[in-house]
Design goal:
- InterPro entries: Acyl_CoA_acyltransferase, GNAT_dom, N-acetyltransferase.
- This is N-acetyltransferase YoaA.
- There is one protein chain.
- A hairpin with a 5-residue loop joins strand 3 and strand 4.
- It is globular and about 40 Å long.
- By secondary structure, it is of the alpha+beta class.
- The chain has one domain: Gcn5-related N-acetyltransferase (GNAT) (Aminopeptidase), CATH 3.40.630.30.
Amino acid sequence: MVENSELRQFPVLETERLRLRQLGPLDAAALFRILSSEEVTRYYGRFPLIEQLEAEEMIERFRLLFEEQRGFRWGIELKENAQVIGTVGFHAWAYSHNRAEIGYELNESYHGKGYAHEALTAAISYGYQDMGLNRIEALVYPQNEASERLLLRLGFQLEGLLKQYAFFRDTYVDLNMFALLREP
């Protein structure tokens, strides 16, 4: 288990088809392509990005998230061509409670090909083995049926509906709470 203060170097994870790595300034164009899509962002909790500068700022926020030991966000890169197709990572890391929230998104061209499952499996394994997590949470719009199916396939359990839990896109939204425990 990694002590919170010992996590100094950003972890790189590899799967059969993917490399999960830290995003840098050169990834801003790819992140912009992903998060400027209404299809991708409608369940992301924000409006689509309008300009690439927003992607650059987001990458900086991801860097600070790691630097401040509050979590981290990997870029999901295809090994075959080094193309960034999405992100996955932990935030809301409650270190003293051994829990964190996981989030993810993929470029819409890569939906339905198993990449999200592959990336989440690697991230979850890292969370349990290296971060010492006992509980991984995911908050999902009830309308996001594809994400809910993915989480259920990974073993997450639906714990309930959180009414008007967040204020996204200028309105209060309900979110389903899913959780995966190290030992159910």
